[in-house]
Amino acid sequence: MRRIGIDVGGTKINIGVLDEYNNICGRVEAKLPPDKSAEGIAEFIGKLLKTHFSEMPISCAGVGIPGTVDSTGRIARKVPNIGWDNVNFADILEKHIGIPVTLIQDSRAAAFGEYMAGAGQNRNVLVCVTLGTGIGTGIVINGSIFDGGLGASGEIGHLPSGDEGRECGCGKKDCMECYAAGKGIELSAKKVFGEELSCNEVFELANNGDIRAGKIIEDAVQRLGKAMISIINLLSPDALLFSGGISRQKELFVNPLIDYIEKHCYSTNGELPFIGAAKLGPDAPMVGAALAAKCRAKSKGKISASMMCADMLHMEEDVRELEKNDVQMLHFDVMDGHFVPNLMLPAEMINQIKKITDIPFDIHIMAENPEQYIEKYNVCKDDIISVHYESTPHIQKALSSIKQKGAKAAVAINPGTPIESIREILDDIDMVLVMTVNPGFAGQKLVPQCIEKITRMRRFLDGLGYTNIEIEVDGNCSFENIPKMMNAGADIFVAGSSSVFDPKLGIEKAMVKLREIIEP
Ligand code: DX5
Ligand code: ZN
After folding, report:
1. 43 contact partners, CB below 8 Å, separation of at least 6
2. Which helix (H) or strand (E) holds 16?
3. pTM of the predicted model, to two decimals?
4. Dihedral of the CA atoms 459, 461, 463, 464 (nearest 10)?
5. Domains along the chain?
6. Helices 199-207 & 211-235, crossing angle to 10 degrees?
7. Does residue 496 line the site of ligand 1, with CB under 6 A?
8. Which ligand 1 atom sits closest to the C-alpha of 478?
9. How many CB atoms lie within 10 A of CB 448?
10. Which residue owns the Cα nearest ligand 1 atom 3?
11. Which residues contact 156 (CB under 8 A, 6 or more apart)?
């Protein structure tokens, strides 16, 4: 299965299909149709896809929008270039192309593309500045696009800059775009030369040694440099990338800009981020939109109560309380003292509890050679048994024996186990259990990089077409961590001492609080 990225520009449309390794395996570029209404453009995209990609199985589409997009990724808010105002373009396009559509502001898509497949790979915090007629910025933090609390992050182009009263398209005056982007360079040229010059012409003059043109560019570089230093000091990114038309002006623009930043930036630890050109060029928004596309509808989060944290002396009372509060699953940890340094929950006990409740069971075997235990459980079709990838050389055999027992099968992976390890067994599983602590004990702290791992796991599964495989997370599913895990794409939360069995709250109150989080 592949995903498609559609970058809707002011005048043209750039479409590419990405394979599961994020390589572009098909592409087409076209001028926008005369009818630039949302319906007109959606119809046009539909025809392009039919003509060029009808042979390819595509799971979902991401659309880069040259304007603001709401937080759900469905509505294009303000898109002045093509005159859209609050249109639900995701709904409209889905009707024409029949696959899930996600919208994303183009400069954020460009940043995400660079982070995932370009010059920002293996970085943690990336700022990518697109220098064109205006200035667009995308910020990616630990694998997620940072929208900001109010959703409007990255408007570097509208930081106050000069004092000449230059009118900005945003309605304010003297924004940085009016001095330091293509538009600003043209306004400066008009002032200095007394005639209209394009941004390219100014660069050409400067290239030929014209001192006045050179000064205009120098001024733009300094203004932008100052803003970049503020951003570095505020966010401490480990990469700062430049893309867009002006970023191709290495000698006159990007190199002096890097020099300026390196010379004037104060860094407490003496380190500066990697600063350089973006790698994907004009394809960045298309690639990023494809990679940011959500390939499945967001599922309603489910709670699996971790029974190792229940009251062992009053197990039945806890089960009744969980039933009363509609918990979706009961999670039983099976530990053998070898695979994990703890010993608990015998099969006899799990089978006894099975007799008193209809809540589906979620049995998590943390034991060496789990094959030997699977036989012991009384399970039916709604129950799930997970075995650890690391616990047996015969993981596929273990999974198929779970299926033979008539239950759902899942593979569990420890924090240090790479996502790609499960590539060969995707046809054998209904769920992946991503451990967010090292297994063995309740009450541990989250391994922080596991949140980003959930994002990558969801993308990995969707990219290969396994949109039906659910992700369960186990370990420190607290009231604070669950929203982050849910946002990263987790479906089922193993809730133990961090939430459902928080002794300060009690099961009832904890479940009310959890429902408020997962069913807003
Ligand atoms: C790990 C266990 C724990 C536990 C969850 O082996 O599965 O993750 O039950 O509980 P808390 O909320 O204490 O992490
Ligand atoms: Zn568990």
Report:
1. 96
2. strand 12-18
3. 0.70
4. 170
5. 2-105 (3.30.420.40), 119-278 (3.30.420.40), 302-518 (3.20.20.70)
6. 110
7. yes
8. 12
9. 12
10. 442
11. 129, 135, 137, 176, 227, 231
Q: How confident is the model at residue 351 (pLDDT cuts 50, 70, 90)?
A: very high
286: helix, strand or coil: helix
Contacts for 315-319: CB closer than 8 Å, 24+ residues apart: 315/353, 316/356, 318/507, 319/353, 319/356, 319/357, 319/359
Tell which residue, 205, 202, 203, 288, has the closest CA to residue 241.
288
Whether 156 is in the pocket of ligand 1, judged by its Cβ within 6 Å, is no
Write the pLDDT tens digit of every residue in 367-386. 999 999 999 999 999 999 99
> Quick check: CB of 120 below 6 Å from ligand 1?
no
Q: Ligand 1 within 6 A of 474 CB?
A: yes
CA–CA distance, 380 with 360 (Å, rounded to integer): 9
Is 283 marked active-site? no
Q: Name the closest-CA residue to atom 1, ligand 1.
A: 439
In this structure, the dihedral spanned by the alpha carbons of residues 70, 74, 80 and 85, taken in order and rounded to 10 degrees, is: -90
- Residue pLDDT, tens place only, 137-191: 999 987 788 988 888 899 999 999 989 999 998 889 999 999 999 999 999 999 9
Asked if residues 475 and 486 have their Cβ atoms less than 8 Å apart, the reply is no
| Residue 333 Cβ contacting ligand 1 at under 6 Å | yes
70 carries an active-site annotation: no
CA of 476 to the centre of ligand 1 (A): 6
